[in-house]
Amino acid sequence: MSRQRLRVDDFDLVEINEALASQVIACVTKLSLHESNRPAP
């Protein structure tokens, strides 16, 4: 993302494949994603 000068704020929706919990935790931490930003079902 940094090579393209993109930030998480540039996206309206980010989808993460939940196959591995450790990958989800790493992405949420690295991208500073929070449950409060999750869209309603």
**Taking all residues together, what is the mean pLDDT?**
82
What overall form do the CA principal axes indicate?
Answer: globular
Number of helices: 1
Characterize the biggest β-sheet: none
Number of domains: 1
How many strands?
A: 0
- How helix-rich are the residues, as a percent range? 10-25%
* Proportion of beta-strand residues: under 5%
Order of helices and strands: H
GO molecular function: acyltransferase activity
Structure overview:
This protein is mostly helical and 41 residues long. The protein has one domain. The chain is 24% helix and 0% strand. It has one helix at 21-30. It is globular and about 25 Å long. 0% of the residues are buried. The mean pLDDT is 82.
Topology summary:
Elements: H1 21-30
